[in-house]
Amino acid sequence: MHPDSIKQRVQQAFDRAAPTYDGAAVVQRRVCDRLLAECDWEDVLPKAILDAGCGTGYGAGILRHRWPQAHLTGVDFAPAMLEQARLALDDAHVADIEHLPFAAGTFDLWWSSLSIQWCDARAVFSEAARVLRPGGRLAVSTLCPDTFAEVRTAFSGIDGHRHTLAFNTPGAIGQAMEACGFRDIRLIRERHTVHYPDLKTLLRSIKEIGAQNVGQNGRQGMLGRAAWQQVEATYEQFRTPAGLPASYDVLLGYARR
Ligand SMILES: C[S@@+](CC[C@H](N)C(=O)[O-])C[C@H]1O[C@@H](n2cnc3c(N)ncnc32)[C@H](O)[C@@H]1O
Q1: If 249 and its partner were Cys, which of 56, 85, 146, 213 is the partner (CB 3.0–4.6 Å)?
Q2: Distance between first and last Cα of the chain
């Protein structure tokens, strides 16, 4: 599929998911909290912050709490998501984070949590480098290849489709940052798992955060009954006392422009 039509599908999925996103975004909030917790920059007092792919504004809320003096700008290409974030922001723009509508050197901190995994990493980081002032900071979280490994295994038996996005490795993310001129790069990889009572609830929750283009990429439409039962049976092998796991292979990245 052409990158532009993938982008359009992702944008539409997030626009539709705006009303249900906050109720389902357990890992997304946890990852935002971790991204901020690892910003161990005692000397940094940003005046202007950009939240790239701000969603419904959870990140904006915790950034405001940490740096109350900063002017907070949010960008998201899904208007319905951005609408919910507006109250938490000083400035809100519907735009693509690969093509930011800001002048060079506008921001002291470029922040993005779980929003770049559908993008070209180099395009995103070169825009980040452009809109950051020299010495400005970057904080990003994204997903790595073991994300939803259970979903991939469960669906792999039934057809030839790849059922999750091809995520970047930490090495590729680090290289893209370096190629765009970032230095003092620090990467932290960690696993976050959520548990669900059954597979239907697990897949519904992926849909409610708008991430079905991550979880079931490549297949449209319903499964037949036999195929569904096979997927359920395979997924049951991963059950723990806490329920059926959905694992996120998360990368936190920090750098200086
Ligand atoms: C999983 S949500 C994360 C939202 C928020 N950062 C959070 O942590 O809750 C991903 C967000 O990124 C936005 N997004 C994805 N690709 C984008 C792009 N190329 N330009 C702008 N926004 C994008 C989506 O619309 C969605 O709101």
Answers
A1: 146
A2: 34
